[in-house]
């Protein structure tokens, strides 16, 4: 008799999934992590040669580790990203342009299995003096986290939002 009840319960779950394809299947601990970035570009971000602020293009990456990210120069990473980052690049999650003095919520991004770091590459005009890359630790499963992404005058920062 319990077999019949279990079959009915399973059939009911299948109907639920068909009716609502985005329904969660399984416990939170085994679900891929969801990461959102609350991005703020400062009013004086990325000044051009005339001293005026300008937009910044950022790349959002999921990495297994950040060793290669911090070992290579800007052009190696941007021009040959797949080759340069190799197996450490699990996903190129997004590419977004942010205007000076703007705020935008990016994501949520689903973390690929094995993700240990989320990284940002910011395409500042003056890459020689700017801090154009940042990375922060994340969990690949069971988490729903929010980070602050700050694009300052010549520096990109990722900070875990504890609030």
Automatic annotation (TrEMBL):
This is Type VI secretion system protein VasD. It holds the Pfam family T6SS-SciN. InterPro entries: T6SS_SciN, Type_VI_SciN-like_sf. It comes from the Bacteria. PANTHER family: LIPOPROTEIN (PTHR37625:SF5), OUTER MEMBRANE LIPOPROTEIN-RELATED (PTHR37625). Transmembrane segments: none annotated. Coiled coil: none annotated.
